[in-house]
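Re: your question about VOC domain-containing protein

S., sorry for the slow reply, the queue was backed up all week. Below is exactly what I fed in.
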Amino acid sequence: MVDSADPEALGRWWAEALGWTVVNDAPDEFEIRPAPDRLPGLLFTSVPERKTVKNRLHLDFRPDDQEAEVARLLALGARHADIGQGEQSWVTLADPEGNEFCVLGAFKS
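Result:
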């Protein structure tokens, strides 16, 4: 579950960012999944308070092209975030409500 000031807006943002499907678009309980009949999903619910500290759950993207993915996510409304990571090979971003996540480089076997 993801606490949110605007579950529908944040849920739609994450659906676009992940390429997932909306399965419930109620204003106070918005759910997305990889496919309608596939779990797990993310459930966005309304809370009165805003995010004030670092996330307890942190998602990482691992695209084939880190630079292109960062550009795509920034175009969707993400922004760069500094959580004290310093110089790293990954890029830390935040969604429209300030939830941090990282975009890693391509996996090397």
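Residues 1-47 form a domain with the Signal recognition particle alu RNA binding heterodimer, srp9/1 fold (CATH 3.30.720). The mean pLDDT is 90.

Happy to talk it through on Thursday.
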